[in-house]
Amino acid sequence: MNEVAPGLVTVFGGSGFVGSQVVQALARRGWRVRIACRRPDRAWKLQTSGSVGQLQSVRCDVTRREDVDAALRGADAAINLVGILYESGRRTFHALHVEASRNIAEACAAGGVGRLVQISAIGASPESRSDYALSKAAAEMAVREVKPDAVVIRPSIVFGAGDDFLNRFAALASMAPALPLIGGGQTKFQPVYVADVAEAIARATVAPEAAGRTFELGGPAVMTFEDVLKLIRRETYRNFGLIPLPFFAARAIGSLAQLTAMVGIAPVLTRDQVVLLESDNVVADGAEGLAELGIEPTGIEAIAPSYLWRYRRGGQFAEAPAV
Questions:
Q1: How far apart are CA 115 and CA 80, in angstroms?
Q2: Which residues of 44-83 are buried (b: 16+ CB within 10 A; e: fewer)?
Q3: How many CA atoms lie within 13 A of 258 on its CB side?
Q4: Start and end of every NAD-dependent epimerase/dehydratase domain (predicted)?
Q5: CA distance 192 to 150
Q6: CA atoms within 13 A on the CB side of 27
Q7: Nearest 5 degrees, angle CA 251-CA 139-CA 103?
Q8: pTM score of the predicted model
Q9: How buried is 20 (Cβ within 10 angstroms: 0-12 exposed, 13-18 middle, 19+ buried)?
Q10: Cα angle at 41 between 40 and 46, to 5 degrees?
Q11: Among 121, 195, 187, 207, CA closest to 162
Q12: What is the C-alpha separation between 26 and 6, in angstroms, rounded?
């Protein structure tokens, strides 16, 4: 894709797992990057990703329009990475996905921001039974109503050092003798590497021909949930069992587990996440994706060993068990 010269880009949610990679990809291209997040102190580690003065962190509550306006002042482009995986108090899917996205889109339109990239998720649909997926679809519609030329990026499950996917189950496996195969473990995923997602977002931010298009991002391999757990078992050298758990039982467990969010503890599983697991999370047939952005996807087998070693007994230098 052809690219235009960079200027100032505001990255909402730029201090997170995907956001930090996006900031680095933009900085490498010469953008001045304004990282807008609730806790600017959490973005301190990114200062070495650019030249002196190239990166700026600002406090922004995306549910407050005045904060969003301030964060976008003088910006040429904006990227919305704000998202949550579970609800807690006022941090609801509607507030942080739908209303925040509308705030950002309206502020972009009012401030003359040329390019808006909206990060959604594969599975976003107004027909979904998941509150998360419903809110992601509603956010896409809210953005496109205001800025029809916005670019929508829908990744599958994102993996990489610091992810909340492989790391979560590997941590559980280090404490439990067995892990549940929710719904029998046959739900399909297309895990995509975080660096590939960041590069796709960076390219979509500058490519004129990306305007108004939707890209679904998936890795080179489709895996079942059981495949993922077996990968973790192989790379962590832990011989944990796999026990089938029907969806109805998993939903009940998720409903109870979500109660921990009330006291500020991230739940291991929520009912809504179980509902998501009842549908495959893969790139739709005919959808545009990494290839259209000129990116060769990185396989999970090439990256996972570089950080799953920390869950081995004995760490990085632990010897593989005899076959």
A1: 11
A2: eebeebbeeeebbbbebebbebebbbebbeebbbbbbbbb
A3: 16
A4: 9-218
A5: 22
A6: 22
A7: 130
A8: 0.93
A9: buried
A10: 85
A11: 195
A12: 9
Degrees to nearest 5, angle at CA 303 with 197 and 82: 30
Angle at Cα 196 formed by Cα 190 and Cα 87, nearest 5°? 65
Domain 8-159+191-218+281-297 has CATH 3.40.50.300: no
Q: Could you give the CA distance from residue 118 to residue 139 in angstroms, rounded to a whole number? A: 9
- CA-CA distances (angstroms) from residue 251 to 188, 195, 257? 18, 32, 10
Asked if 111 and 75 touch (Cβ cutoff 8 Å), the reply is yes
Write down the pLDDT at residue 323.
58
Q: Which residues of 135-167 are buried (b: 16+ CB within 10 A; e: fewer)?
A: bbbbbbebbbebbeebbbbbbbbbbbeebebbb
Per-residue pLDDT of the chain (323 residues; tens, 9 = 90+): 555 457 999 999 999 999 999 999 999 999 999 999 988 887 777 877 778 778 999 999 999 999 999 999 999 999 999 999 999 888 999 999 999 999 999 999 999 999 999 999 999 999 999 999 999 999 999 999 999 999 999 999 999 999 999 999 999 999 999 999 999 999 999 999 999 999 999 999 999 999 999 999 999 999 999 999 999 999 999 999 999 999 999 999 999 988 887 777 888 889 999 999 999 999 999 999 999 999 999 999 999 999 999 999 887 777 777 65
Distance of CA 272 to the CA centre of its chain: 17
Amino acid at 221: A
What are the φ and ψ backbone dihedral angles of 189, each rounded to 5 degrees? -125, 165
